[in-house]
Write a structure and sequence with these properties.
The longest helix has 23 residues. The chain has six domains: 161 residues, no CATH class; 143 residues, no CATH class; 65 residues; 74 residues, Arc Repressor Mutant, subunit A (Orthogonal Bundle), CATH 1.10.10; 82 residues; 115 residues. The N and C termini lie far apart (82 Å). It contains 40 helices and ten strands. The protein is mainly alpha-helical and 907 residues long.
């Protein structure tokens, strides 16, 4: 484990241990081991030839990831582990490649800060061999000496190596080995001593000997392209081909010097960009010309070498050339050359640390007397905010030391972002890409048109380049396939950005407005197609943008009505707004949302409507009351809040309050006026004023859900066939209008009424209702199906029936839906009446009477007596439209029919 000098020089405490902690990268080690085992087998196979320039290459493994993910640390650890197995992290386990393999790890830092170029790459490879082999490599050394004398006249190689920091890699030995190789060649060619010291003359003589197949050149005659390379102008272009000579020399080493180079190219993002690939072309050429070496590339982006569109920019392109670098599903990948399952593809994203890895990293990063210096509560906050990015953990450790100079660090000190992360993220992006990145940070997810529009760009190229970066994650199955790395996104939006092209508050505001408009455009273009997923996605992102940036509602109003019209109620609540650094992230006292803008009020309204499927109706009514009292919404959206508050009041048994709200909405002309008139019909039914309810229902039409309202009236009169026909008609209407929630609700009601008369058919109805409820969040409708299942089984089930009823009663009470509670109580009365269990029926009727006496559904107690054929001494005020005796007879007939059915089945 290496010492961290930055941390050690950040404290006067000599007992402080600061180490560059390395957290388990087992998956990456496994990938290296697999690739290396495959590589060793491939180069040892009969027919392998390093001079074959047409065979596909399998000698590259790529690890890519966002800046700060730990690529350089991984590269260094791999170098150490391959050089000396004793330095391998214990968690990695034993190597899986053949024992006795002589590996030569060579790490090259290609970062701009390291000043790497093709000369340094080629020299580093040769230096590594000089240290390991200890002898000249004449084919390569003669070419290199000729190049050096031409390009660096008068500059000794030894001085160059010292100046570039390469002398430690056998820098003293290499010049001697090269001089010896040139001299040996001159001697073999019988050149005079003076001439033999000049690489140019030696090369010319060697070319002549090779062309004329002289015996003197026999030792190098096997390198079929040596003469061509020695004749070529000795420039940088020619130098990039010399690794071919190096590969040939390695292949002919004697057994005791046999070696397999493993070249670790780190910081590959600095080799070039998507426009300027000059250095990348030279580096790729080195990789291609050394097929016996395994290259492990670490960088921010995937290699595009398998993309045939790059033909002409690079020498070797396409999936046929680089099978392991092509996507596994590439249609251009020849079947015969498809990577083996255990080895490809070999472009692997380095993922974020797991929470356990973050804890392990922080515990070992700074220690004092062998114990973690950073306390557990602080480590927990850092790990949570890091989203698994090692750079964030490292910066937090340094912040810990900085704060510790003056006081004891606290968890709240780390509820912050690091501007340094922005600099690391943006450093290799173009100006246009940085612009798109910031705009994309406003969005939870995006596609190319959305990102381009949010950035205010007129062309897609910057966004297309940006999505290739590892800081952009892809989910092909998502509505919008791209999203930013969570920490990168939060940092871009929350940190104090001091970069040269940073955005002002007005820039962010304008981008938010563009993004909001673009979302509305995407939704409006498909609104007629009924794309519910797009509606919900646009609403979730649009509501957050409008709320956080105080935008006008615009298209959100129409989208809100579209959301309500289907009665599906997907969760919509966006995350709470980010609090300023160091302040708790709450909306207001008790975490209650602060309502300052119309967007705040609309977010709260729609979130309440969705949450009411999981919350008690009392909370629904209270939240909507806050919205209404805020007076922030326009009139039509205020009616939405009024209507659904009135529904909540009805569900809670607050008839007067519900009626007042429904009358207010029904008197208007908004989209919910027909629904409010339906609500008034429901309220008349709840009061037992059935003639008034029936009269009101006749004119509701589809908008007022007329057929379902009629079905609700028929079944309480025990007109089950008429009720079933009404619910079927309601379901058909809903299907024709593509309203999924209404269709499921009508089907659930159909199953409920058929459960009284035809349990077998009710089975099928319940199955269909369950299918229609998939993907919907309709709590009351779901409760209806479960009550229907109890009615279907009435008179059977024994203890199991009782247990199911008790569980359901608990859930119904928690929902606050009064209709479900009273209907469940009535279903239990039906069950006991069928069994002729008078004691249990007495208790059930008493409970039902207690629940409804003086409230809505008071006539349910009447129905319970009708079922059992009992006299009714204290009837409700219900006004049955065909008289109470007819209703009594029909309810009693349902009980006796069920008893007869059960006796027949027992017989």
């Amino acid at each position: 484990m290496a010492r961290d000098l930055r941390a050690l020089f950040g404290s006067n405490n000599q007992a402080l241990d600061a180490d560059e902690a390395f957290t388990n990268r087992q998956a990456q080690w496994d990938a290296v081991a697999s690739a290396l085992a495959d590589h060793l087998a491939r180069i040892a196979a009969p027919g392998f030839d390093v001079q074959d320039l047409e065979a596909p290459r399998h000698n590259v493994l790529v690890f890519h990831g966002v800046g700060g993910i730990g690529k350089t640390t991984l590269s260094r650890k791999l170098e150490a582990a391959l050089a000396d197995t004793a330095r391998r992290p214990a968690q990695w386990g034993e190597p899986s490649w053949p024992a006795g393999s002589r590996l030569l790890p060579v790490r090259v830092d290609l970062a701009r800060s390291a000043g790497a170029d093709i000369e340094q790459l080629v020299l580093t490879l040769r230096l590594a061999l000089a240290r390991h082999v200890g002898r000249g490599l004449p084919a390569f050394d003669i070419a290199l000496r000729r190049y050096w004398d031409t390009v660096h006249p008068g500059e000794p190689l030894e001085e160059y190596l010292r100046r570039r920091g390469l002398a430690a890699m056998a820098g003293d030995a290499l010049p001697g080995q090269i001089k010896g190789a040139v001299g040996e060649a001159a001697q073999q060619l019988a050149l005079p001593g003076v001439v033999g010291s000049a690489a140019g003359q030696v090369a010319a003589a060697l070319v002549t000997a090779l062309r004329q197949r002289h015996e003197k050149a026999r030792a190098l005659a096997g390198c079929v392209r040596l003469a061509d390379l020695l004749e070529a102008e000795p420039d940088v272009e020619a130098l990039s081909f010399y690794p071919h000579l190096l590969a040939w020399e390695i292949a002919r080493l004697p057994a005791k010097h046999t070696v397999v180079p493993v070249v670790l190219l780190d910081g590959f993002e600095d080799v070039g960009d998507r426009t300027h690939r000059d250095l990348e072309r030279l580096v790729q050429r080195v990789v291609w010309l050394m097929p016996s070496a395994l290259f492990i590339v670490t960088g921010r982006s995937r290699l595009q070498w398998a993309d045939p569109a790059l033909q002409g920019q690079l020498d070797y392109t396409g999936p046929a050339a680089w099978p392991h670098l092509a996507p596994a599903s590439s249609p251009l990948l020849p079947a015969a050359r498809t990577p083996a399952p255990n080895t490809g593809p070999r472009q692997l994203l380095i993922g974020d640390f797991s929470p356990e890895d973050c804890e392990d990293y922080l515990a070992h990063r700074l220690t004092h007397d062998g114990q973690p210096l950073i306390p557990a509560p602080v480590r927990a906050v850092i790990a949570r905010r890091s989203h698994g990015l090692p750079l964030y953990l490292d910066l937090s450790a340094l912040r810990f030391l900085e704060i510790r100079r003056t006081r004891t660090p606290e968890p709240g000190d780390f509820e912050a972002d690091f501007a340094a992360l922005i600099a690391r993220t943006l450093q290799d992006l173009t100006a246009d890409e940085r612009h798109v990145l910031r705009a994309a940070a406003l969005l939870d997810a995006f596609d190319i048109p959305l990102a381009t529009a949010a950035a205010g760009q007129t062309h897609d190229a910057p966004a297309l380049r940006l999505i290739e970066r590892p800081l952009v994650r892809e989910d092909p199955t998502a509505l919008w396939p791209y999203h930013l790395h969570a920490l990168v996104r939060s940092t871009l939006r929350g940190a104090d950005d001091r970069t040269d092209d940073r955005w002002s508050d007005q820039d962010w505001q304008r981008a938010a407005d563009r993004a909001h408009t673009a979302l509305g455009d995407q939704w409006s273009t498909t609104a007629t197609a009924g794309d519910r997923a797009l509606l919900i996605g646009c609403l979730r992102q649009g509501l957050r943008l409008a709320r956080d940036h105080r935008l006008d509602l615009g298209w959100l109003a129409a989208a809100a009505w579209a959301y309500v019209s289907d009665s599906i109620w997907e969760p919509l609540a966006p995350p709470a707004p980010a609090a300023p650094t160091g302040q708790p992230a709450v909306n207001g006292p008790g975490g209650i949302a602060v309502l300052d803008t119309p967007a705040d009020a609309l977010v709260e309204t729609l979130s309440t409507l969705a949450a009411r499927q999981r919350e008690h109706r009392t909370r629904t009514a209270d939240r909507l009351t806050r919205v209404i009292d805020s007076r922030l919404l326009p009139a039509d959206l205020t009616d939405m809040a009024l209507y659904y508050r009135a529904k909540a009041h009805r569900d809670l048994g607050r008839g007067a309050a519900s009626r007042q709200g429904m009358q207010q909405v029904a008197a208007g002309t908004t989209r919910l006026a027909p629904a409010a008139r339906r609500g008034l019909a429901h309220l008349a039914r709840l009061d037992g004023d059935f003639p008034a309810a029936l009269a009101a229902a006749q004119n509701l039409g589809w908008a007022g859900r007329q057929h379902r309202v009629l079905g609700d009236l028929w079944w309480v009169h025990a007109e089950m066939d008429q009720a079933a026909a009404a619910y079927q008609a309601a379901r058909t209407d809903a299907e024709q209008h593509a309203v999924a929630g209404e269709r499921a609700t009508s089907q659930a009601q159909l199953a409920f009424v058929r459960a009284f008369t035809d349990p077998e058919t009710a089975d099928d109805d319940l199955d269909l209702a369950a299918q229609l409820l998939v993907g919907l969040d309709l709590r009351a409708t779901t409760l209806t199906t479960r009550i229907a299942a109890l009615v279907r089984d009435a008179g059977t089930g024994g203890q199991d029936f009782t247990d199911r009823a008790n569980v359901l009663d608990t859930e119904v009470r928690a929902s606050g839906v009064r209709a479900a509670r009273t209907t469940l109580a009535l279903a239990l009365c039906f069950h006991h009446a069928v069994l002729d269990d008078n004691a249990a029926l007495d208790t059930a009727i008493r409970d039902l009477d207690h629940l409804t006496r003086g409230h809505d559904y008071a006539y349910y107690t009447d129905i319970a007596h009708f079922m059992a054929g009992r006299d009714l001494h204290f009837p409700s005020t219900a006004c049955w439209y065909d008289g109470d005796q007819a209703v009594r007879d029909r309810w009693r007939a349902l009980v006796t029919a069920r008893q007869h059915r059960l006796r027949s089945s027992d017989g």
